[in-house]
Specification:
Strand order of the largest sheet: 1-2-3-5-6-7-8-9
Structural class: mainly beta
Radius of gyration: 12 Å
Oligomer: single chain
Shape: globular
Number of helices: 0
Strand content: over 45%
């Protein structure tokens, strides 16, 4: 899985840019697991699937308020670009660069 690895990421949120490290761990077939860790804590990746170089997953945010996040991202070389849909807050841009 060429998308595997850790990425230094920034999500443009209504509270300002949120930095985190997104880790993608290959699973069986077209699945993956992992997490994102940042200033607000850590969230596990749920229902991660990959199609080519496009990732789709969900996360459950607990801080600063409980919310389900729907995420998609495309990996191009060492660059990651995507979107995070955060309920009533709408869709936020996600960018990242592979660390390893």
């Amino acid at each position: 899985m060429s998308v595997a690895g850790s990425y230094d990421c920034v999500t443009k949120t209504p509270m300002g840019p949120q930095k985190g490290v997104l880790t993608i761990v290959p699973g069986e077939g077209d699945t993956f697991t992992g997490n994102i860790t940042g200033d607000l804590g850590s969230m596990d990746i749920e229902h991660g699937t990959v199609s080519g170089n496009t990732l789709t997953w969900q996360m459950k945010m607990t801080m600063p308020m409980p919310m389900d996040l729907d995420c998609t991202a495309t990996v191009d070389g060492d660059a990651l670009t995507g979107k995070v849909k955060a309920g009533m807050f709408g869709t936020m841009d996600l960018t990242g660069t592979r660390k390893n």
